[in-house]
Amino acid sequence: MAPKLFVNRFLVPKEGSSDLECEDAIEVRPSLDPDDALDAPLSAAVADGASESMMASRWAQSLVREAAEVGLLHSEVFGDPRSLSAELVRRAVEPWDDQIKEYCARRQAGGRPVQWYEQPGLEKGAYATLVALRLQPLPPGVPDEDGRASHGPAWAYTAVALGDSCLFHVSGGAATSFPLTASAEFGLNPRLLGSRNHDVDLIADRLSFSRGHLRDGDELLLATDALAAWFLRGCEDRSRPWLELGEAAGGGQSAFGAWVHEQREGQLMRNDDVALVRVLVRDEGAGDADGRDAG
Fold first, then answer.
1. Cβ–Cβ contacts within 10 Å for residue 129, how many?
2. Cα torsion at 21, 26, 30, 33 (round to 10°)?
3. pLDDT digits (tens, 9 = 90+) for 11-21
């Protein structure tokens, strides 16, 4: 029997912020419990809303929702830069004015009307990074790189990114990263997707794509920048950071949050929101995908 997918996901706000103030976002389609085994297509996305923009959290949530929806239902669109860009504009950018109206109405109803000095921020729009993933099972007998069908891959993936949220593929005791490959690449000005950007060609030009195959025992990690930078530093130090991360994730949301806090306290991780989606490829019943859903 072909190995299946097990998925867990985690959101941890920056120190001093509440869960409601977290500006990172996660979407997984279909929605799974950590113990659920999946043998059908899966899509997932994480986004990091830029703190300096208004409604950053809502924009990040819109991006992951629409990217994951396209990834699950429209594989031919998800893998093509211009088609995906056009779909994100149609699904996320074009409805943004309606989201602003809803936000302003809610503020008004709550006795906190939008102030004059907030208007420029609303007009400028919100910004976020994005990394999204589509996974689909491969038919039996697909050969591996050496042409051997008996040990061939079980899953194929396509990933797309804009900015410094990253995908890591852990396989055979090593990890590859996308789109950034070194911790020094993280900076203060990553590329961002804006809620006012209707330029389909410009967005398409800024999207990066990666494709690969997964075998039993592999894992994929989608992470926003603070965690991704920590992970890449671990790779550079040859400390195999996926082992420590896997142990933290295996304890569920509470244990993972405590682990993130420890990294921040030790100045090993920047104090920023953290989003993680962990996808494990395992024989059904392997039992090591026991992290708890972030909600």
1. 25
2. -70
3. 999 999 999 99
Tokens of 61: 């949530």
Stretches in the chain below the pLDDT threshold 50: 150, 286-295
- Phi then psi for 205, rounded to 5 degrees? -65, -25
- Domain residue extents for the chain: 4-282
Model confidence pLDDT, tens digit, residues 81-123: 999 999 999 999 999 999 999 999 999 999 999 999 999 999 9
Q: List C-alpha distances in Å: 107 to 93, 101, 113.
A: 22, 10, 5
φ/ψ of 246, rounded to 5, equals -65, -40
Tokens of 294: 């972030």
Name the percent of the chain lying above pLDDT 70: 92
Architecture of domain 4-282: 4-Layer Sandwich (3.60)
Contacts 24+ apart (CB under 8 A), 88-91: 88/63, 88/193, 88/203, 89/197, 89/198, 89/200, 89/203, 91/66
